[in-house]
């Protein structure tokens, strides 16, 4: 028997309903925010809207406009906004006890046991979980400590195009210069090597081998220029880098290099985990067992903050207090994560994400046939990227912004990604219905055609 309501019953509506955007109430709140909030605020600059409530894959602003959400809080809300089955559990837990540090609770132990069950490859049933701080960056920090502690080495290896967070250690692995400027020096023992992108011939064996050779040299070349890394940190599909799916054999090649050099392979599943790609973890698409995976975002079930790392039990060499964090006992978030997993299982949302994601990519492929600016459509499950260039073949971030604005004006929220900001990133909740997908893609495809045509005039 399915838990919670059907995905058809989670939303405000199937279609968006938009009048004036931003409306007068949104303009008032946006103005108040600009006067007192941090200059670091980013999203309202591109999508000027003030939010009031949300259900499923729909969001309503303070003026009553209803939007389809193809963004899901950067992949946080895999089972949708305010999922009743998840909320019921988190509210019950809040009324019982919320902050538990690392004392055992049913919520904590049940979530760990469930994560051990759905863990990728050989981690299933042979892994332990550590909770630290309440974000993905905190999970990455814990993984850096774990690798250094188990290998006795200090070097860390990441990839060009990577995003792992913005705390000091995580930012050392994040590749984007815009995040780093003015904050150096960070960890001096961090090195970045190429990730196989479209420009590098992603999908081809030659590109895969070139990138793997660059990794291997950092471990084995006597004049490689850096300390031998303690581990390799990799997104199984790059998110911020532009929804880049690596070629077959890439992750296995990293696994082999790590094994040959007594290093750890840490896979960042913060954005791709818990059903986003049609598998519990994107690593499952590549039949590779990492030594550790980092999680956050959708792990809180309904947007509650929680970060965690699951790693093979052989690496659990910490003593008491070996990794800590004040908020490592967020019991409502743990219930939220458990209930979100149960909801995904009960409603077969892995298969749903696979089928619906293919539909989104098929619709984009149709547009690409008559829109030369759309040069690549890629992704797995409901993790979809569409890359755009200008008439000279150069990345066209302006076109992506124009498409995004048109979508917003017509009631669809989408976001961008990519090293040059020229990739549309679609990461809707897994509870998006087929009807909503069709409506949303009609809006998006019309926006692409209109914006591309306008740009050539």
Automatic annotation (TrEMBL):
CDD domains: OAT_like
Top-level taxon: Archaea
Keywords: Aminotransferase, Pyridoxal phosphate, Transferase
GO MF entries: identical protein binding; pyridoxal phosphate binding; transaminase activity
Cofactor(s) demanded: pyridoxal 5'-phosphate
Family that this chain belongs to: Belongs to the class-III pyridoxal-phosphate-dependent aminotransferase family.
Official protein name in the record: Aspartate aminotransferase family protein
Provenance organism: Natrinema longum
Taxonomic lineage of the native organism: Archaea, Methanobacteriati, Methanobacteriota, Stenosarchaea group, Halobacteria
């Amino acid at each position: 028997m399915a838990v919670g309501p059907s995905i058809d019953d989670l939303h405000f509506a199937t279609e968006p309903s938009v009048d004036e955007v931003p409306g007068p109430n949104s303009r008032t709140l946006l103005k108040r925010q600009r006067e007192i909030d941090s200059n670091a605020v980013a999203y309202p600059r591109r999508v000027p809207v003030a939010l009031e409530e949300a259900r499923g894959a729909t969001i309503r602003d303070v003026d009553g406009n209803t939007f389809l959400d193809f963004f899901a809080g950067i992949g946080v809300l895999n089972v949708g906004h305010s999922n009743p089955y998840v909320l019921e559990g988190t509210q019950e837990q809040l009324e019982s006890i919320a902050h538990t540090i690392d004392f055992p609770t049913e919520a904590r132990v049940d979530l760990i046991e469930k994560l051990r069950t759905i863990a990728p490859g050989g981690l299933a049933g042979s892994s332990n979980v550590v909770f630290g701080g309440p974000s993905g960056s905190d999970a990455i920090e814990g993984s850096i400590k774990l690798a250094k502690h188990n290998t006795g080495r200090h070097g860390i290896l990441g990839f060009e195009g990577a995003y792992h967070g913005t705390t000091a250690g995580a930012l050392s692995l994040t590749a984007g210069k815009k995040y780093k400027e003015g904050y150096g020096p960070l960890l001096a023992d961090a090195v970045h090597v190429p990730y196989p992108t479209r420009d590098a011939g992603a999908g081809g064996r030659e590109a895969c081998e070139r990138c793997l050779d660059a990794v291997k040299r950092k471990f084995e070349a006597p004049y490689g220029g850096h300390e031998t890394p303690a581990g390799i940190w990799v997104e199984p599909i790059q998110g911020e880098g532009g929804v880049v799916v690596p070629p077959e054999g890439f992750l296995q090649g990293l696994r082999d290099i790590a094994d040959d050099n007594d290093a750890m392979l840490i896979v960042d599943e913060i954005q791709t985990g818990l059903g986003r790609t049609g598998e519990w973890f994107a690593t499952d698409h590549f039949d590779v067992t990492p030594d550790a995976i980092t999680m956050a975002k959708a792990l809180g079930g309904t947007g509650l903050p929680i970060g965690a790392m699951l790693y093979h039990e052989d690496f659990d060499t910490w003593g008491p207090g070996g990794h800590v964090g004040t908020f490592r006992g967020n019991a409502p978030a743990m219930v939220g994560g458990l209930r979100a997993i149960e909801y995904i299982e009960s409603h077969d949302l892995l298969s749903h994400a696979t089928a619906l994601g293919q539909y989104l990519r098929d619709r984009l492929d149709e547009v690409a046939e008559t829109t030369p600016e759309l040069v690549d459509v890629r992704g797995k499950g409901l993790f979809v990227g569409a890359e755009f260039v200008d008439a000279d073949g150069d990345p066209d971030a302006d076109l992506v912004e124009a498409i995004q604005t048109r979508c917003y004006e017509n009631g669809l929220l989408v976001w961008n990604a990519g090293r040059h900001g020229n990739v549309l990133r679609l990461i809707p909740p897994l509870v998006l219905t087929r009807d909503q997908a069709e409506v949303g893609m009609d809006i998006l495809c019309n926006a692409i055609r209109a914006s591309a045509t306008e740009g050539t005039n």
